[in-house]
Write a structure and sequence with these properties.
With 245 residues, the chain is mostly beta strands. It is built from 1 helix and 10 strands, in the order H-E-E-E-E-E-E-E-E-E-E. It is elongated and about 80 Å long.
Length: 245
Amino acid sequence: MPKLKTLSLLAVLAVSLVWPEGAGAQQVPSPYRFIEAKQDLGITVSYVYADPGAANFGPQAGPAISVRYTRSISRPVSITPSLTYFTSEREVIDPSLEEGEGGGSGSQVVGTESIDLLLVAGRFNLNLTGTRTWHRLVPYLSGGLGIAFELTGATTCFEGSTNPDCQIEPRERFDFGTSFLLQLGFGTVWLPRQRIGVRLEFLNHIWRLATPPGYYDPGVTIVPIPSGKDWTNNLELGLTLSYWF
């Protein structure tokens, strides 16, 4: 009997020592982790699927590079100022040519010119997972405002110049100038390390294309004649590498 009591006591003691470890081993790790960093600085490489507008004289698709800074201003909300350089080409159209008389791919295209834009903008971001990551991912929605500037400027024409812009009347030349910019988008951040982040983002840049005044002159044959202000959707797909701190 004393031996039985001793064995029973040892069994109870063994179970009491093993039980906490077994219970802890069955806990499921949470997919959520807190984001300790409050800001990040990154470089984005992207491609902009630009819409040249109804008359096809605006910027076409091309690559872009951006510098961006993001800072958290509340639990789910952050703000992102950004600077984007977008390099592209545009078709030069003579609106008074008859269909098929142009030398380009379009019916009235006489050539192409380069066009470079600088986009200065600020966006608000809403993190869908708040201040945490979900499996190291942070999906978000974003929206903001800015200004788009043309860097190339107007073409200077001399006697005998062969530039396509110089083959049409000054009133028929497209000038992007400066446009108000609206940005809407969504994306996700992947945080493989505490200080390193990779961001995949889809943005829609909405800017204005001003129709040259010569498109409303007598003798213009282009159909349809575009409206004075053509607001276009320009879709950007970008990949960002950023440092979090």
